[in-house]
Amino acid sequence: MDGIETDYLVIGAGASGMAFTDALIGGADVDVVMVDRRNGPGGHWNDAYPFVRLHQPSATYGVNSRALGTETIDTTGPNAGFYERATGMEVCDYFRRVLEEQLLGSGQVRFFGQCEYEGVDGAVHAFTSRLSGETTTVRVRQKFVDATYLETSVPATHRPAFSVGDGATLIPIGDLVNVTEAPSGFTVLGAGKTAMDACVYLLDNNVDPEKIRWVRPRDAWLMNRSSFQPLDKVVGTVESLSVVLQCLAEAQQPKDLFSRLEANGELLRLDPAVEPTMFRGAIVSEAEHQSLKQIERVVRHGRVRRIDMDRIVLDEGEVPTDRRTIHVDCTAYGLRVPPRRPIFEAGRVTPQPLMGGFTTFNAALVGFVEAARDDDADKNRLCPPTAYASRSIDWISVFESGFRVIGQMFNEPDMAAWLGTCRLNTTRGMNAYLGEPRMQAAIGRWFEHLEPALANAERLRAAPEV
User: Fold this and answer.
1) What pLDDT, on a 0 to 100 scale, did the predictor assign at position 400?
2) Model pTM greater than 0.85?
3) Which of 43, 54, 122, 183 could cysteine-pair with 326, CB 3.0–4.6 Å?
């Protein structure tokens, strides 16, 4: 059993672990050991379906020290007019290059792939190679970092929570690219962004909307991609955020809030006759939104319990199917949502969301604060964790937390400076437009409504659920 020492032991080389480590070594002269059960970095991206893309612009994803993509605006397709979004393969290649060239290249990071973290015994941590069985002990001088606390479940690796009878065909979303013969129809299972991606993929490949059935236990509020564009489109982003603050400040009750957000184009829904009860942070363009609305065969009878050759059994009834229908599993839960805990503790860092689902920005901010500050209580004041959203009402907590964190950052000179240069920041580039009338009006609206919005958010969160 070999032994090593390090300042920081980071478990998990997914998006969160990579962004945290990059920011940490960018601000502190420390030694880091990274351990991951996969043979390389990228986490769940290594198991993602072939046609997956980022929800957000590549310009605001990844690690702070290295650009992802070329920061250009798409001119064709459903993302036309918005900053490019990397494919899953591009993201995997990016993280590989980040590991090799930024992290290992710094001389501050060592990486141990295809190893299982075994835990800690007293002051000594251990991990074991999945190939050789050899165990390595690690004495950590400063902190253990659990970048797997919010581990992701994806269709390719999860086990469905329902049973499948003989003669029924169920495939994970990634196997859509392997379909060789047109079925009688497709039944997409799941209400989240993965299911939306499956539907868009089928529609983009000329499948008749009438041949697509969507089992959607809950309808979701969707965010408009136009509201989250950096750099040359940042004026519109700041305008959108200021409108959100005004809606949050003036809403009388939750339903009124969502009506205002929808009227202003900040939130979208797929069926105007159905009030969404879910918010998971999915981002779509208006083109994708209109495409998804073509699917009218929607089943709303709860979750799937069993698929047989001739029927689908759900919580609240059943619907017919047949052996020539392909059922597409998009029911993986995505991010595991364990209880929130302080991000900074004695001898431990647990990266968690601070501002919505912008995973790498959140993790990089945590890494920067760990490097820049000494007192854990002060760090936790600056970085209060917020739970990932599920219900519609959770939208309020997500945006309230985000605005509070941003407000605190602007009051701290070092954090404000970091925010202004961080490439993962959605409002990056706004300083170049401060003299424009639209930007000045948006900033004025922001400061006018910030405090009333935060105060009203607490009242709205206590109201009955939407």
Assistant:
1) 93
2) yes
3) 183
